[in-house]
Structure formats: structure tokens, C-alpha cells
Amino acid sequence: MRTERKLTRLDRVFARLDREPERPAHIDVPRMSRHRVVLFASTLAFYAAIVWAVVITSWLVRLDWQVMFFRPYQQWPEIHAFLDYYVVLGQRGPTAVMIAAWLGWRSWRQHTLRPLLTLGASLLLLNLTVGAAKISMGRLGPHYATSVGSNEMWLGGDIFPSGHTANAVVTWGILAYLASTPRARRWLSAFSAVVSLGVGLTTVYLGTHWLSDVVLGWAAGLLILLGLPWVEPLIARAENVVFDLRDAWRDRRRGTAPVPVAPVEVPGALSPIGSTAGHPADGQEPVVREPVAASRPTRPQGHLAPGPHLARSERTPVTPAGSRRPPHSDRVTRGTASPRSGDGRLSA
After folding, report:
1. How close are the terminal C-alpha atoms of the chain, in Å?
2. How many CB atoms neighbour CB 250 within 10 A?
């Protein structure tokens, strides 16, 4: 009775992905067009302008202090409880889990790992860029400000730019980036813009960020979304690497890993009789022989006849030492004169 091996959950997941190994044709991978490059350059210039305005303690810093002294959480205390929950939409842990669950289902349906890998690449870029900016500028938040009217830069803080705001832009904007149709992309772009705008203003309402922190967080998240097409070749390569590792792991489990075949050395061409090594004799054409196949087994040297090995056409015909047939008394050897009787008949 033949029994089939029980598939594990991981095997079923990869079996689902194997049904269509190629990326579906209807999925539109964004490219770094000229319009996108212009938007990226404009956003980068805006990012640098915000940083410069805070560094030189311009009117933007004065606006930060005015909003902080206004204390929105005291002006509208009735919405404080709701905004305490709403700001979670910008926290990296809960939002990453929700978006990863949705994109995991997308990967299952579309038979590709690109949605999950794109999310991972965007979050990695977010941690590197925003984290580096926070540590390098070290700005203190409104609740920890030391001097009224100062920019609070390089004092050991980590709130510039706003991580909540940048995370909301990236995690919710990745849904619009991976949308399959233009209509879905427009609706998801509007939805992600509203969510990220609300998360940024909520941090200002709660007093955890300056207004300039939020503005810079919007720009930081938008830069990552606009620059993702540059990362698409690496995402495709990572997808191929994952499937290659899966295939190797599956081969090891089944015990069918290919055994490397040692190369068989092909002996050099033998020269004909009377010629020197590697050179044909005078007046003779070189003998061209077919190469020996690598998979053909070679005989041990003990079975070879002594002396140089010659081609069949070059061997001297010799008379066999004896016949392999059993001896018969009524037969004579071929080539010898048979005794005949006087009347021409064979003698008995």
C-alpha cells in the first residue's frame, strides 16, 4: 500500500506559491519615471529646507513654541481619549503587524513574495534614514524643552523628525504603492494621506512633538515611498534567493541533493606509428578522433594490451592462435588442402 508524505504548513505555503512562479502580468511595478524623479528631488529639497530652518532658529521654531504654549490637549479635552487610540496607527509595531497580515494574504493570492519583501525593504529604509536623522540632530521634545525660544538641537533627544508620522506615511502608503489598478491606487493614496496627516497632528495635540517634527516626518516618509522603484531590482533578486534556498532545503529533506560528478580526464590524442609525440609523421595526415564522453566509464589500465594502443585501421592483421569452436573430427581447418580421392571426391 502506497502512502503519501504528509505536507507541513510551510510545504503547503510554498506549494501555493509554486502554482504560478512567474509574477502575474497584471501587476504594475512602479518605475522611476521623470515625474517621480522630480517629485523626489523636490521633496528632498523641502526636507533640507525644514532642517535648515530649525537649525538657524527661524520663524518655524517660533511657531513651534506658539503651538506648544497653546496646549491643544487643554483646549479640546473631550477628544483626548479618542486620539490616544488613534495615534496607535502611527506606531511601528501594531501597524507593521496589520499591514504584514494584509500583504501576506496578497502574496498568497498573487503567488509572489514581492508585497512582503517590499514592506520589509521600506521599513528597513525607514529605520535607517529616520533613525540616523534622530540620533544625529538630537532634538528635545516639547515636554523636555530647556530654554524658551531655542531650537533644542543636539541635546540628546530623538524626536526630530517624527517617527510616528514617517511610519504612518510609509506603512499606509505602501498599500497604495502596491495597488494593482489605478483606481485602487488613487483611493489608497487618499486614505494613507488622511491617516498620516491625522497621526502627525495628533502628536502635536498630545504635546509629544513640535510642529516642525511632524512636517519633517511627512517629508521623510514620502522620500522612502518615492525612492522605492530604485529598490525593486533588489527585491526581485531577494525573491529569487528565497525560492532557491527553499528548493535547496527541500532537496536536503528529501535526500535528493545532486551529487557532484568528478570530471573524467580525457587522454590525449595518440599519434600514429612513426610520428613523434604530438606531431604527425611526414606525408601522413593527422588522425582526428572524437572526444571521449565524460559520462562514459573508463576501463582500468590492467585490461589494456601491452604496447602502444593503435587504431583499428593501423593494426596489422594477425592469424588467430586457434579457433574458439569445439573441435570436430569431420571438419578441417579453412585454408588447407583437403585430401581428395582419385575421382575428385573427398576421401572418407
Report:
1. 72
2. 14
Query: One-letter amino acid identity for 204?
Result: V
Provide the angle, in degrees to the nearest 10, between the axes of the packed helices 182-206 and 211-227.
160
* pTM (2 d.p.): 0.65
Q: Which of 179-193, 249-263, 320-334 has the lowest mean pLDDT?
A: 320-334
Q: What is the pLDDT of residues 232-253, one digit of tens each?
A: 999 989 988 988 888 888 888 8
Place of cell 528548493: 247
Spatial contact of 155 and 138, defined as CB atoms under 8 Å apart: yes
CA dist 109 and 315 (Å) reads 71
On the CB side of 104, CA atoms within 13 Å amount to: 8
Half-sphere exposure of 346 (CA within 13 A, CB side): 6
Helix spans in the chain (H): 9-18, 34-55, 59-70, 72-75, 80-86, 92-110, 114-137, 163-177, 182-206, 211-227, 232-254
The amino acid at residue 21 is P
